[in-house]
């Protein structure tokens, strides 16, 4: 390669590296004016990563002229492939940083929603997928895929100004970037435009703040659930619905319902629709709160006290623990775990039952010292610390899941009579109807039902082990010594492989 060509290429590379560092300087300047918050900290982290990459590229380029004199003139520029890889990586990080700072500017709210926005950005902009995310069910598009839709300004238009490049980039890509905003609600022009057909033959279910209808996607033929909210003109009501959407769009686990889309119709003001998959008309409460005859008719696989039924219930318990672990991994607290908020779906093979956590209307992100409402969850299942209006953590969900486990084991062991015995333990004789306040009576009834109604010793042993190592630890009155979700999963793994 001619010396003049080498130096020309070298100058181009130096200029590119300088532009990356200029980008860092300008982005850091913007972020420096932001108050400290989860989004601000995330933006600073992304900018620092870009700066590190830019410095690494610059130092690599600075070494070229000295090493170039040691090679033959006919040899191409030193390590061209490596430099090309570094430049591509820096380009990707630069776009990521510009998008991240723009996202932060749009979504700084200074409240709990900003914590949700930070999780959203970490997942969908930065690609930090939760370890157990069900990637096949994703309904949102990751930045890596969106980047294919991005248009880039002509390089000659921004050689003298980072601001020009950044502004031109954002202007060219408003439509693509709008799809990367949290709590996105699509607006359809008329009521005929949404691709869903309501199944009027199916009776709607009640949910938090709305009714849930069965719909069929006219495009795919899939059955979904749509939560219909009425009278959403008030700002507080609208923000509550958007908050639930913000939680749902982060749910990408096989044991949690998933968001398909949220939409409004221009010709129907005051209404909002949240489409969720799958449609499942059966809850855990339907399994528990039924006479033996009605239960058998609805759940033909279920026979109280049999080993096969207990094994199935253990699988359900594991699935619920997995789903809750996913939420807690994102620092999301469900706040209202109860049998009525757990769906039971037949798996694709038609044999196994898949438990699904649903109804995220009360869910929130958790951090130490954050304010919380203690009374908007179902009182029957409130943890002791919630009842006492003390600081509640993710451990409050563990208490509620422990209550669900208790009902599941009781139903599987003794059927309808056992369910009535457990219910009477905290609702009869002028008792409070709150499990945490009747803990001693509740656990006594639980032990009597579960420990002695199995058909054989092996079943009794498994149930006793479950009680001692899992349920007892989940229903610990002291949240500091109560099991966390990781411990619950570890203890359940000790059960026989089912």
Essential attributes:
50% helix, Phosphorylase Kinase, domain 1, Four Helix Bundle (Hemerythrin (Met), subunit A), 3 domains, seven-stranded mixed sheet, Transferase(Phosphotransferase), domain 1
Task: Describe the protein's topology.
Layout: H1 3-32, H2 38-62, H3 64-68, H4 80-107, H5 112-125, H6 143-146, H7 162-172, H8 174-178, E1 186-188, E2 196-198, E3 205-207, E4 210-217, E5 223-230, H9 235-248, E6 258-265, E7 271-277, H10 284-288, H11 292-298, H12 307-329, E8 332-333, E9 342-346, E10 353-357, E11 364-365, H13 384-387, H14 395-427, H15 439-452, H16 457-474, H17 485-492
Helix pairs in contact: 1-2, 1-4, 2-4, 4-5, 12-14, 12-17, 14-15, 14-16, 15-16, 16-17
How many structurally independent domains?
Answer: 3
> What is the mean pLDDT?
82
Percent of residues in helices comes to 40-55%
Strand content: 5-15%
Low-pLDDT ranges = 66-71, 139-144, 154-159
The CATH H-level homologous superfamily of the largest domain:
Transferase(Phosphotransferase) domain 1
**Rg of Cα set:** 28 Å
Number of helical stretches of at least 4 residues: 17
Q: What structural class is derived from the secondary structure elements? A: alpha+beta
What coarse outline follows from CA principal-axis ratios? Answer: elongated
Give helix and strand order, one letter per element, not per position.
Answer: HHHHHHHHEEEEEHEEHHHEEEEHHHHH
Q: What is the strand tally?
A: 11
CATH topology of the largest domain: Transferase(Phosphotransferase), domain 1
- Counting copies of identical and different chains, the oligomeric state is single chain
Q: Describe the sheet with the most strands.
A: 7 strands, mixed
Name of the CATH class of the largest domain: Mainly Alpha
Q: What gap, in angstroms, lies between the N and C termini?
A: 67 Å
CATH architecture of the largest domain: Orthogonal Bundle
